[in-house]
Amino acid sequence: MIVTDWIHELSVSMFVDHHHSIGDNKPPTLLINGVGRFRVFNETTEPKYMKAATFNVDKGYKYRFRVINAEFLNCPIELSVDDHNITVIASDGYELEPITATSLVTYAGERYDFVLDANQDVNNYWIRFRGLMDCDERFTKAKQVAVLHYEGAPDVEPEGDPTWEELHNEGLQLNALNKGEEENETISVAEMRSLQGYDDSLKEIADYQFYVAYDFYAKNNSHFHRSPYYGYYQVPHKDNRLYTPQLNHISMKMPASPLLLDRPSPDNFCNMSSISEDCKEGYCECSHVLSVKKNAVVEIIIVDEGVTFDANHPFHLHGHNFRVVGMRRLANDTTIEEIKAFDEAGLLKRNLKNAPLKDTVTVPDGGYTVIRFKADNPGYWLFHCHIEFHVEIGMALVFKVGEHKDMVPVPPGFPQCGNYIPDHSMEATEKPKTDSQYISINHWWPVVLMNNNSTSSSSCLDSMSALVVLSFVWLLKLVIDT
User: Fold this and answer.
1) Where is the Plastocyanin-like domain (predicted)?
2) For 201-229, what is the mean pLDDT?
3) Which end of the chain offers a freer environment for a tag, N or C, measured as fewer CB atoms within 10 Å?
4) Which DSSP string corresponds to 81-132?
5) pLDDT of amino acid 12
6) Containing H/E element for 324?
7) pLDDT at position 451 over 60
8) What is the set of domains in the chain, with CATH numbers?
């Protein structure tokens, strides 16, 4: 089951409209395996009929399903099957002790395997998908259905067109929205148990511990707001002000060329230890990199400060899996200092025995999630929010695992790319043979730059001037030829 958020425009168009406050960032509905109805079922305007995705089963058999949340917006999905329980047995490719529940919530980037026992009467049953957060009753009520079809049942859909409110089935819920170990009616990821056995990532004391706090901040981000002309608080309508999502008050600025190829010195990076205290109030951006030694055990305490929105962010780590050793919601909002005090008081529980393995995990709003991984895969690995509109504007950082000598060498002649801003950007395929001939320019491309030095304003202007002049020459040549 592949679940996607469905919008009727290009995602980049939606991003631009939302960025300029002339559109929103909320999907109106969903697709299941590429199939679905666009409009709400019970509108007065009858939607065109589209057959729902159908999953065929034989009575008396058990079936393994894999649900893949392939969304890119903030729309967690609650999944349930009418008159059936589901037994979750794996997540993100790693086996779990089986847990039977009524419903399961998945977040962007997550994958879950569950077993369904086809032990009910031969009939057709709704598989219900209900959108949460930006898809809930406050916004679009995004939803979709599929059909569980028993062999021998009529080839018709179940009766009724369930509304968004009716898509919730009461009972035990796994991975519930903004819930942690403090809840009794739900089971969080941190309470699931791995079948993979013990490994070094579960040792008592990690080699590195990083607190990574995030939220949406009211800042004069120079990409959005420019004081005194268009500062954040100078925008008269609050809805038109753009918040800045950051990790530890840093916006990730991608380097001009891939880190794994360029392998720059640490002087080109920044993190909490090197930035100014002013970054808490002002806007700071850089190549945000945390360095760890090869084979070290790394603990990350991800803190959702929860001040600006009642939101939810799934985080994904490239290059490694991790153990989810703790998860809790403390209040509507919190701080790193409160989490540290909570830990020092012995209240921050860690499962260091059989914590589940994953590569994507959510963080409760106003709470924390604690993950552990063994840094045994040398390289530069992105750690980011899996909501595309957030990571695009800086909600990410990079883990540098090991030293450059530990990383796989760059193959000779390996294609390389650099800054898209051209320097010596034009190449002439023919040079003038006499004073009366013009240069014939057939193509251009950015020059490969394998250093991380920033381009000065003057050099940028020189490059742009050269581009304008050469463009004029090309147009003049075109006129003469015609």
Assistant:
1) 2-153, 268-403
2) 93
3) C
4) ETTB-EEEEEETTEEEEEEEESEEEE-TT-EEEEEEE--S-SSEEEEEEEE-
5) 94
6) strand 322-329
7) no
8) 2-177 (2.60.40.420), 200-406 (2.60.40.420), 426-481 (no CATH)
